[in-house]
Specification:
With 403 residues, the protein is of the alpha+beta class. The protein has 13 helices and 21 strands. The protein is elongated, with a radius of gyration of 25 Å.
């Protein structure tokens, strides 16, 4: 005999716990299933262990999707202030770090315990760790085969997240269930991920690992796309042994298309060519010394070598045309990444269940009444900075109030 519930939520991560708590507190009999042995590992490791749980400025413009308007409804009905209200209710101390990003003062474990308490307040039943077998439509709803016995329920909410960090339990179950019910998928790919470079053009930069500086970055590809569609960020860049990382690169990686360049402005406050040309007659220094007034010295030398300049050339001896070329290499450095560090290092998965298949009010599949998809499984991906959790809370709330 299958055990009867109103709602089964598959995946006890950020979105799944929020959805289960909301539905259960409305009086629904809810069971929450997850195959992991440790609860909500992604929340635990998030924000360097302090969980950047929301961004006070979160709005539709901070998300990527084939349908950028899809997230609008859910985000407006469960806002960063709503989640903050919950955080305050549980007396979790927090602080704003940078650009509206809110972090726990102490530990992300507090967010996990808060969500767990919210589930307990609604008497959510747990099955964890629990292997999921199959999910089939039945005459009255759905039939789930799972470790611990079969489940019969009116609604199923899929909250199994994306593919990033497979070693802590990410799987493609959400996409497989979507395909099983004939729903379209936007091809998943890693997002918020370091970019890698190899080949001779990168040789001069390989020894620069550890150098960090604030830059502006955008994607160079995508003719006809406006600034928003190309992505444009001012954040820190970090040179690594295999390529580039840091917030600037993680942000732009979500917009980057393989085979196209990213464009970096290493000195966004300065028109480098103009500055060099105008100081030619007064500054007697070598080029390397001039640039290292503004850039880390190792980076200045690396850039000069990569662009065919000797660092000991005297600025006064340089033709204006050459200085313009050098200025371009610093203010508009276009480089084509070889690839990315992949799901092993990606913070999120772009793509997922096509939003055209879902109701933007409820997150229910239009052609499968009672089947819902929430969180990262859906083709809605936030920027770095607390946006992805805000989507998890908001989409979880939308489904939780509808099931
Ligand atoms: C290192 C790192 C740091 C991050 N930091 C931040 C941050 O500070 N701020 C921010 O906003 N976002 C951050 N993110 C992104 C954020 O963690 C995710 O976007 C968010 O957790 C997605 O929520 P979700 O509920 O959709 O999926 P998840 O939280 O990933 O939950 C999915 C759940 O489904 C379960 N599951 C998966 N497959 C199966 C299966 N086959 N059977 C049963 N259960 C299954 C998993 O065990 C998991 O518990 C970070 C991500 C990473 C990897």
């Amino acid at each position: 005999m299958a055990k009867q519930y109103d709602v089964a939520v598959i995946g006890a991560g950020a979105a799944g716990m929020m959805c289960a708590a909301i539905a259960a507190q409305r009086g629904k009999r809810v069971v929450l299933l997850d195959h992991a042995t440790r609860l909500a590992e992604k929340i635990r490791i998030s924000g360097g262990g302090r969980c950047n749980f929301t961004n006070i400025g979160a709005g539709p413009a901070n998300f990527l999707s084939q349908n950028p308007n899809f997230c609008r409804s859910a985000l407006s009905r469960y806002t960063p202030q709503d989640f903050l209200g919950l955080v305050k209710k549980y007396r979790i101390a927090y602080h704003e770090k940078h650009k509206g990003q809110l972090f726990c003062d102490d530990s992300s474990e507090q967010i996990i315990q808060m969500l767990r308490a919210e589930c307990a307040a609604g008497e959510v039943s747990w099955r964890m760790p629990c292997k999921i077998g199959s999910i089939e439509k039945s005459e009255t709803g759905f039939h789930i085969t799972a470790e611990g016995g079969d489940i019969a329920c009116d609604s199923v909410v899929i909250a199994t997240g994306g593919l990033s960090i497979p070693k802590i339990g990410a799987t493609d179950l959400g996409y497989r269930i979507a395909k099983q019910f004939d729903l379209q998928i936007v091809e998943p790919r890693p997002g918020l991920v370091p970019l890698t470079f190899d080949g001779p053009s990168w040789e001069a930069f390989a020894p620069l690992a550890g150098i960090a500086l604030e830059v502006e970055v955008s994607t160079g590809g995508g003719k006809g796309k406006n600034k928003t569609q190309r992505g444009h960020f001012r954040e820190d860049l970090l040179f690594t042994h295999r390529g580039l990382s840091g917030p600037a690169i993680l942000q732009i990686s979500s917009y980057w298309e393989p085979g196209t360049p990213i464009v970096l402005d290493l000195l966004p406050e300065m028109d480098v060519a103009e500055e060099l040309i105008s100081s030619k007659t007064t500054v007697k220094k070598q080029l390397g010394n001039v640039l290292s007034q503004w850039l880390p010295a190792r980076l200045a030398d690396g850039l000069l070598v990569a662009n065919g300049f000797a660092p000991d050339m005297r600025l006064a001896d340089m033709a204006d045309a050459k200085l313009r070329k050098l200025g371009d290499a610093i203010n508009r450095w276009a480089i084509v990444p070889t690839g990315s560090e992949g799901y092993k290092k990606a913070e999120v998965t772009l793509g997922g269940v096509d939003t055209r298949e879902l109701s933007q009010q409820t997150m229910m599949a239009n052609k499968v009444p009672g089947l819902y998809f929430i969180g990262e499984t859906v083709d809605v991906t936030g920027w770095l900075g607390g946006y992805n959790f805000q989507w998890a809370w908001a989409s979880g709330y939308a489904a939780g109030t509808s099931v």
